[in-house]
Specification:
By secondary structure, the chain is mainly α. It contains three helices and no strands. The protein has helices spanning about 1-30, 40-60, 65-90.
C-alpha cells in the first residue's frame, strides 16, 4: 500500500512539475518579449502558489509522499532542462 502511495505521489509530482516548468517557460517568454504588463506577474504568482499548495497537501500525507512528490518535480525539471538544452544546441 505504501508503494502505491509513493508511486502516485511521484507521478503527481512529475505531472505537476511538467506543468510548473511549462508555465515557467511561458512566464520567461512574457517577461522577455516585454508583454509583462498584466499576464506575466499573474502567471508568476500562480506558479508559486500552486507549488506551495501541492507540497502542503503532500506534507499532510506524510514525509514519504512529500519526498516522492519532490522527486517527481525534480525528474520533471531534469527533463525540461534537457529538452531545452538539446533544443538550444542546434544554435551553436
Amino acid at each position: 500500500m505504501l508503494f502505491l502511495k509513493l508511486l502516485i505521489s511521484l507521478i503527481v509530482g512529475a505531472v505537476f512539475g511538467a506543468a510548473f516548468f511549462g508555465a515557467l517557460e511561458c512566464n520567461v517568454r512574457l517577461y522577455c518579449w516585454n508583454y509583462a504588463t498584466r499576464l506575466a506577474p499573474v502567471i508568476h504568482v500562480m506558479r508559486i502558489l500552486g507549488v506551495a499548495l501541492v507540497f502542503v497537501g503532500f506534507a499532510k500525507l506524510g514525509a514519504a509522499p512529500l519526498l516522492s512528490a519532490a522527486a517527481g518535480l525534480q525528474l520533471a525539471r531534469i527533463f525540461a532542462v534537457r529538452a531545452k538544452g538539446l533544443a538550444l544546441e542546434g544554435f551553436h
